[in-house]
Specification:
Structural class: mainly alpha
CATH architecture: Orthogonal Bundle
CATH superfamily: Tetracycline Repressor, domain 2
Radius of gyration: 23 Å
Distance between the termini: 50 Å
Order of helices and strands: HHHHHHHHHHHHH
Number of helices: 13
CATH topology: Tetracycline Repressor, domain 2
Low-confidence stretches: 18-27
Number of strands: 0
């Protein structure tokens, strides 16, 4: 069995046919993979991603580290399992399940649950999305957005492209928000306080002649909102304009 095959078997461990699961019947193990993954997530949530090491998880479960390797072969695979588990926790409506009637409201549901996921598990912002775990959590998100966009009058290629554009925007912004939360936790300083400490930038170093546009917007009251408010407003603005653009293609 290749590493990729092993990863897939672990990711889809709760979705295998009953016949395949029965082949492993025998003495009941003291742990199961689900318990290992849940422990890793709990440690990462409370103490950061580094706390979810193989040794840390083994200690939390009261077993030896080598015992843990019989359930999950490596830290990388544990991380994949943790990521896919929390992706699935969004509980996005599947085929035939109730969902908002309007397609934009359905995108808002994806946005809200994705942002909540990153707030509850901010360590996700430290995990690269380039090669995501090919598990049920990932596919559930892809299926949901494709189903949303497929209700529009788009070609199959445009449907896939639009769904990817939405997930890229939402996921990236949610990751940045989670990273912001981690920085505030680690530093013990809010972003407003961080900027206040650097107020001398505007009094001593800012040159209005080199930054005429910034100066004009400042004088017009364009920079009055707090960093957190600006982030929320810019996110809503960007998502709304993205969906406007997708809607234009349907006409």
């Amino acid at each position: 069995m290749t590493q990729a095959d092993r990863n897939l078997a672990l990711l889809w461990r709760n979705h295998r046919p009953l016949a395949a699961a029965a082949k492993g019947a025998g003495r009941r193990p003291s742990l199961d993979v689900n318990e290992v993954v849940a422990t890793g997530i709990r440690l990462a949530d409370s103490d950061g991603l580094s706390a979810a090491s193989m040794g840390g998880v083994a200690k939390e479960l009261g077993v030896g580290t080598m015992t843990l390797y019989t359930y999950v072969p490596s830290k990388d695979e544990l991380l994949e399992l943790m990521v896919d588990q929390v992706l699935g926790e969004r509980a996005l409506p599947g085929p035939g399940e109730p969902r908002p009637d309007d397609w934009r409201a359905q995108v808002d549901l994806y946005s809200e649950r994705t942002q909540l996921m990153f707030r509850q598990h901010p360590w996700l912002s430290q995990v690269s999305p380039i090669r995501p775990p090919a598990g049920p959590g990932l596919l559930a998100g892809r299926e949901y957005l494709l189903a949303v966009v497929s209700t529009l009058n788009l070609t199959p290629h445009e449907t896939n492209t639009a769904a990817l554009a939405i997930s890229t925007y939402v996921d990236s912004a949610a990751s940045l928000q989670a990273e912001s939360l981690l920085i505030e936790r680690a530093s013990g300083q809010s972003h407003d306080a961080w900027w206040t400490d650097r107020s001398d930038l505007w009094e001593t170093y800012f040159d209005v002649e080199r930054h005429p546009t910034m100066t004009a917007i400042w004088n017009a009251g364009g920079f009055t909102a707090s960093p957190n408010d600006v982030a929320a407003e810019s996110y809503d603005y960007g998502l709304s304009r993205l969906l406007d653009g997708i809607a234009l293609k349907t006409r």
